[in-house]
Amino acid sequence: MKLAALPPLSLYVHIPWCLRKCPYCDFNSHEARSDVPEGQYVDALVADLEATLPRVWGRRLHTIFIGGGTPSLFSAASIDRLLTAVRTRIPVEPDAEITMEANPGTFEADKFRGFRDAGVTRLSLGVQSFDDTKLAALGRVHGADEARRALDAALAIFPTVNADLMYALPHQRLEEALADVREAIARGAPHVSAYHLTLEPDTAFHRAPPPIPDDELSADMQEAIEAELGAAGYEHYETSAFAKPRQRARHNLNYWTFGDYIGIGAGAHGKLSFHDRIAREVRERKPVTYMKAAMAGDARSEMRDIAEDELPFEFMLNALRLVEGFPATLFAERTGLPFAVLEPQLAAAEAQGLIERDATHVRPTLRGQRFLNELLEAFLAPAPRKRVISISPKGTGRPA
Ligand code: SF4
To answer: Which pLDDT tens digit goes with each residue over 124-139?
Structure first.
């Protein structure tokens, strides 16, 4: 494979601590039992970025995403130090989108203003629900009123805001799921992410599952949520993402269009393209190990080039999440492979009604969107390399 040009470059920063571990959460997040070593961790992030620079010489950052965990646990001064360190080491485009995830349980107006002054342009708020009973069932540290106050303040302070919501919650009725969406709309969130609660392995909910809606009811909820947001002028542009015009998440769009990203922080994943190869990197997962390794000059626990026969699946894993699909030319631009290598799988997916396409564009049908896993299976590389690769632990806009 040969790439004619390198894709846009983003930076993902992982901050791995939370006030409390939510019972459904499988992210690399740890309960902040005593004082979080904030200063030391920022030092490690900066050292990690510096060690990565030789692999991205001459490139500019087009978005930054500070995710977690709960990055809003950190002080505004630490976020300012981090973003200043980034800007002095790698060029950042003047209109770069800089997103930070925040938990309403950490909300203080002055702190939010400090994040804005540090350069954060977009706050992604983990609301999840405006219903106290549902928030308690999810083990969230915040209540509905805190979520309301945090969302209203975020909308007043930041140029743009995302509200994360979850549906198919324990004992939830369709009307309750819709009430959450209606409230996010009424409060003016320009971007809403609506995630289906899933019982992930190695979580408390997986070990002791709560009573959640069955498949039929959750499918009805999904349809009703899509219709409600559509009627309110939101564009449904990715499986779980809805945006008012010109409010799409540019950082996440870079993942979904198979762009590049540096991933720094405990357990962060990165993807970097070179002219003749595409590499993945993973950082040490445990915060203490990560900090030690970063300060010693290399925090990577894994690195490997993506094999050519894995590239179609990796590309599709991202691009088929986009409701509008992707232009055929993007595949060659991002993977360096001719579009023709996809022909047998595309023809099969089309025959099953999972995609539709013309000479220039491929898009998932509604059936393809609903049965995304089946659709993706068609693009898996043949054995023995056949395996599923997760694109990023966070920064894809999943709930925080
Ligand atoms: S869901 Fe978010 S707030 Fe809860 S433990 Fe996971 S990362 Fe932390």
So the answer is: 999 999 999 999 999 9
